[in-house]
């Protein structure tokens, strides 16, 4: 087999070849947002891929410095708009740690149910669009049909479908009604056969496997040096999940497995294993939701927290959002408005790996790699 | 394994996985016709999932956060909504009532019977700026500012989306209640 | 699937130092005070300036800004700490105390850079801070130790104007390359227009 990386000078006598600079521009159907990648390619093989971000920079950090803590919660939703509940939860957890609040058990259980529902919705979108990028339109529509059910449940709970403003320091803003809990239990029964169908459509499909297996392999030490987290890190075979290793919100009460890429197809660290980790995580999220709905305790849905909190101190707190570990660094000076809020977004770091990982790939594999690291540009640019 | 065996294994993988995928779509088609709608003990219902909007509209929950509406008779001009709004889309102007205007009137009973000490001159909400977070409805003490389930109010000009709630006049009819 | 069809051409990339993560280590989390003591004994007493522990929230180790590379290398490679994950590099601007200021902040006339490192083996997290001169903030880059520092430091340069010495690609990342000013500074003034377009406020 010829080694495609070496230029074949002896056959190209008289043919002038040079590297092309191609712009995979900010408007592109497969870049999952406004991402510009400047690709230097020798024919089809890529010699360098330089991501250029900042097209969706909306000055989140400067906005939060001029607004009170509660007013900042809608801004955090809008960073990763696909999984907005997890963004709000991270912010609110950091504020609660600074205020030393004790959260009631019902509020914690409600937060767990909402987070896992949000994880399912986010993974459905990522798997659906990944199937779409690889050419399978059916998976995309089925994923959105199931995601629609989750969005309707959220609309009954808090009134909004995509950007919720539901979490508050101390708990949640509204309680769950018994009708909604029945709908959530019904949803878990609805989704399992549909997840098996999505598995049939994508996971072992020979076209999907040959496009994603052995592509974009990240070994564990490189992933850790790059600071990857979440399904991107677990797809390389490393077992680290904040819900098990640094539990928050009462996750230690629930029984679930951490999904790690084991290499049933391809090898651990390639695009197929990152995809399969997300697929398996949805099954585990259903398990957690069933356990939480069975054992939902009675009580208050929020602790007694001031309407306008005035914390003092400095903290960096992480939580597990569907795309990795989301961290908030809050510098609080005792006033109504924070002095500084910095959001550490997992997608920012995942985008920085494009440069090194895409060298030596073919042009079509860049699309496969971008889909597997599951970036949302709202979070990359904030 | 030998490459000939690998060759036939590849063909087998391709055929089997394509067959499984096709069966999934065939089952979805049969569901729209009413057959095979129960899978693993769950009844998915016959018929297609798509609804033909705008002739058929979906029911949205009553607490859905769409366009705002302010009941004029319940506003006590406390300014809390304008202060809490993260994007500053509410404009309120009010002044103290003069001696002859001050007749001890109160807001109606379903708005809390609070005394009306200020005269409201202007209450505008720029619905194009509004981010539908619901913070203003949470802090309103008389609950006169509410989110309605109204979502079909597009206009051709952005300035037409600045609603003056003291002279409310919109082409779209308001839902009851 | 067929190995020869699926496998692509081998990747070529520039190899820099990547620490290996040990798997078989019994986890023993350390506190900030223990880390500060270990740093003092290994790198000299003047490396650690303070351990801020009296406030709500995390405990921070304030370190001499000229020794940050040695500190992070020690924390990454030493068997007691194994802090192989750089979680975030976050910078904050603290100007001189204003007249009517009522805040309870403790830092004045400095820019602070906070490095949060985490150990997967020992399951502890440490927070290292350096304080830089506000008029000309510069510090050595830690890109040779952690690859994630590359983009984090670019963002700090872009939004706050900190100069990282030895950074391989010291350019703006979020804002356009011809933007003037560093927006997250407290004395930043919004420009009236940019390239002929009015800047909306």
| Large-scale geometry of chain C | globular
Report the portion of residues of chain C in β strands.
15-25%
Structural class of chain C: alpha/beta
Bin the strand percentage of chain B: 15-25%
Helix content of chain C: 10-25%
In angstroms, what separates the terminal alpha carbons of chain C?
56 Å
What is the CATH architecture term of the largest domain in chain B? 2-Layer Sandwich
Q: What can be said about the biggest beta sheet of chain C?
A: 5 strands, mixed
CATH topology of the largest domain in chain B: Alpha-Beta Plaits
Total count of domains of chain C? 1
Largest β-sheet summary of chain B: 3 strands, antiparallel
Largest interface: A-C, 67 and 51 residues
Q: What ranges of chain B have pLDDT less than 50 throughout 5 or more consecutive residues?
A: none
Read across the widest sheet of chain B, the strand sequence of neighbours is: 4-5-7
List segments of chain C where confidence is low: pLDDT < 50 over at least 5 consecutive residues. Answer: 1-17
Describe the structure.
The complex is a heterotrimer of chains A (382), B (177) and C (201). Chain A is an alpha+beta fold. Chain A folds into 2 domains: 9-52, no CATH class; 60-381, Cytochrome-c3 Hydrogenase, chain B (Orthogonal Bundle), CATH 1.10.645. Chain A has helices at residues 60-65, 69-77, 84-99, 105-134, 137-158, 178-202, 206-212, 220-226, 231-234, 242-245, 271-294, 346-352, 354-357, 363-373, 377-381; strands at 20-24, 36-42, 45-52, 167-168, 171-172, 312-321, 324-333, 340-344. With 177 residues, chain B is α+β, with helices and mostly antiparallel strands. Chain B has 2 domains: 3-43, no CATH class; 68-167, Alpha-Beta Plaits (2-Layer Sandwich). Chain B has helices at 3-33, 80-84, 135-139, and strands at residues 38-39, 42-43, 68-70, 90-96, 118-126, 145-147, 162-164. Chain B has a 3-stranded antiparallel sheet with strand order 4-5-7, with no helix packed on it. In chain B, a hairpin with a 2-residue loop joins β1 and β2. Chain C has one domain: Beta Polymerase, domain 2 (2-Layer Sandwich), CATH 3.30.460.80. In chain C, the strands form 3 sheets. Chain C has a 5-stranded mixed sheet with strand order 1-2-5-4-3. Chain C is 19% helix and 23% strand. In chain C, 37% of the residues are buried. The N and C termini of chain C lie far apart (56 Å). Chains in contact: A-B, A-C, B-C. At the A-C interface, α3, α7, α8, β6 and β7 of A face α1, β3 and α4 of C.
């Amino acid at each position: 087999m010829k080694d495609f990386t070496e230029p074949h000078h002896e056959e190209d006598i008289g043919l002038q070849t040079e590297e092309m600079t191609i712009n995979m521009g900010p408007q592109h159907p497969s870049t999952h947002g406004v991402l510009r990648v400047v690709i230097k390619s020798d024919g089809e093989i890529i010699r360098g891929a330089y991501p250029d971000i900042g097209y969706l920079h909306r000055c989140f950090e400067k906005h939060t410095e001029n607004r009170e803590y509660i007013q900042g919660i809608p801004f955090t939703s809008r960073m990763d708009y696909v999984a907005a509940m997890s963004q709000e939860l991270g912010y609110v957890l950091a504020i609660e740690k600074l205020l030393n609040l004790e959260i009631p058990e019902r509020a914690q259980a409600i937060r767990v149910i909402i987070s896992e529902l949000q994880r399912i919705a986010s993974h459905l979108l990522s798997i659906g669009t990944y199937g779409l990028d690889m050419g399978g339109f059916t998976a995309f529509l089925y994923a959105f049909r199931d995601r629609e059910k989750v969005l309707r449940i959220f609309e009954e709970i808090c009134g909004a479908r995509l950007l919720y403003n539901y979490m508050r320091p101390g708990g949640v803003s509204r309680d769950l009604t018994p009708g909604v809990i029945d709908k959530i239990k019904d949803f878990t029964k609805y989704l399992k056969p549909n997840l098996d169908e999505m598995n049939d459509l994508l996971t072992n499909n020979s076209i999907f496997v040959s496009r994603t297996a052995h592509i974009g392999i990240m070994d564990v030490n490189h992933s850790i040096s790059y600071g990857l987290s979440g399904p991107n890190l677990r797809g390389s075979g490393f077992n680290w999940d904040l819900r098990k290793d640094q539990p928050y919100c009462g996750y230690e009460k629930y029984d679930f497995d951490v999904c790690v890429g084991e290499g049933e197809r391809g090898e651990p660290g390639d695009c197929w294993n990152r995809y399969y980790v997300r697929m398996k995580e949805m099954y585990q999220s259903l398990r957690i939701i069933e356990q939480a709905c069975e054992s939902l305790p009675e009580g208050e849905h929020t602790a007694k927290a001031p309407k306008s909190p005035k914390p003092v101190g400095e903290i960096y707190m992480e939580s597990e959002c569907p795309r990795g570990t989301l961290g908030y660094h809050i510098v609080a000076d005792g006033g109504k408005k924070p002095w500084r809020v910095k959001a550490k977004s997992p997608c920012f770091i995942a985008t920085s790996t494009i440069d090194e990982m895409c060298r030596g790939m073919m042009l079509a594999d860049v699309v496969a790699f971008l889909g597997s690291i599951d970036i949302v540009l709202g979070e990359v640019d904030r | 394994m030998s490459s000939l065996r690998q060759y036939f294994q590849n063909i087998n993988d391709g055929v089997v996985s394509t067959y499984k995928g096709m069966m999934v779509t065939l089952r979805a088609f049969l569901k729209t016709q009413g057959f095979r709608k129960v899978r693993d003990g769950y009844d998915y219902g016959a018929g297609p999932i798509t609804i033909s909007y705008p002739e058929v509209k979906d029911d949205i929950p009553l607490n859905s956060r769409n366009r705002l509406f302010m009941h004029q008779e319940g506003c006590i001009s406390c300014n809390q909504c304008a202060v809490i709004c993260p994007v500053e889309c509410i404009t309120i102007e009010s002044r103290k009532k003069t001696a002859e205007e001050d007749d001890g009137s109160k807001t109606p009973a379903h708005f809390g019977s609070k005394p009306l000490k200020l005269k409201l001159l202007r209450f505008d909400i720029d619905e194009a700026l509004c981010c539908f977070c619901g913070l203003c409805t949470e802090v309103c003490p008389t609950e006169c500012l509410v989110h309605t389930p109204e979502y079909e109010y597009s206009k051709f000009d952005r300035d037409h989306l600045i609603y003056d709630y003291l002279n409310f006049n919109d082409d779209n009819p308001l839902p009851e209640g | 699937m067929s190995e020869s069809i699926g496998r692509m051409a081998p990747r070529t990339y520039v190899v820099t130092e990547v620490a290996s993560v040990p798997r078989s280590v019994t986890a023993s989390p350390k506190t900030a005070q223990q880390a500060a003591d270990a740093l003092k004994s290994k790198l000299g007493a003047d490396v650690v300036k303070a351990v801020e522990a009296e406030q709500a929230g995390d405990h921070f180790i304030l370190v001499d800004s000229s020794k940050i590379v040695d500190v992070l290398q020690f924390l990454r490679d030493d068997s007691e700490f194994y802090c192989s994950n750089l979680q975030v590099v976050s910078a904050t601007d603290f100007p001189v105390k204003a007249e009517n200021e009522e805040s309870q902040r403790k830092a004045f006339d400095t820019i602070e850079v906070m490095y949060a490192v985490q150990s997967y083996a020992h399951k502890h997290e440490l927070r290292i801070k350096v304080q830089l001169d506000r008029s000309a903030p510069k510090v050595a880059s830690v890109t040779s130790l952690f690859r994630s520092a590359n983009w984090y430091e670019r963002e700090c340069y872009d939004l706050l104007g900190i100069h990282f010495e030895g950074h391989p690609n010291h350019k703006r990342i979020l804002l356009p390359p011809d933007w003037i000013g560093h927006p997250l500074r407290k004395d930043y003034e919004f420009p009236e227009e940019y390239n002929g377009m009015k800047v909306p406020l």
